[in-house]
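Reply to dn_fold:

You asked what the input looked like. This is it:
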Amino acid sequence: MKSKEKILQQGAEANIILHGDKIIKRRVKKSYRLPSIDENIRKLRTRAEAKLLEKAGQIIHVPQVKDVNEKTKEISMDFIKGKKLSESLDSFPLKKQKKICKILGFNIAKLHDNDIIHGDLTTSNMIYVEGKDIVNSRKNSIMLNEINISDIKTSRGLAGGNNFKVYFIDFGLGFHSHKIEDKAVDLHLLRQALEAKHFKHWKILFAEVLSGYSSSKDSKKVIEQFKKVEARGRYKEAY
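and this is what came back:
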């Protein structure tokens, strides 16, 4: 590791490293795989995640990709100065929590309308940024967090008034899919995350997520399939 690098998180698939004003996501070697296979898998996953980030960055707030190094299996991107939403959401008044979750639903709808599946939708993979720290974020990204909530079905209903943004991070398990089932499972993962981490108001908050998600062109089909996914989960728990 380079001397100016600071490891922020060590994961099974990758290490997250702070280097100056950039974050480096470096995929780790797997000793149980043949070296040639491991090399190819890590290269392909690095390339795929970078492409997902770049595509998602056209429609929602994500860290801007600065560089992709397939040789070292690294993605270099903007450091978003903020807090994980998992650590901050419960500290806000319920009214603000509901507003944030409605925006989350709208952002997920935008991803799904572009056939982007995040694959790990939890509040730990969302960064809350407010106040003066907003100026450090990508300047040309779409101001989705300033949408007038009463005009949630439009994609250009900018009204200001929100002194915050929420960034989606870690698309390492993400992929492209037009399947309703995949989109329903994405929602299911967030529902589980809210219940586990934000249990006090999770039902209210997830209702707001679904309200925001109603802006998706396939929202009715996805939510109908989501209910089936939930039913399967309950059946497995029972038996």
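The first strand starts at residue 5 and ends at 10.
Hope that clears it up.
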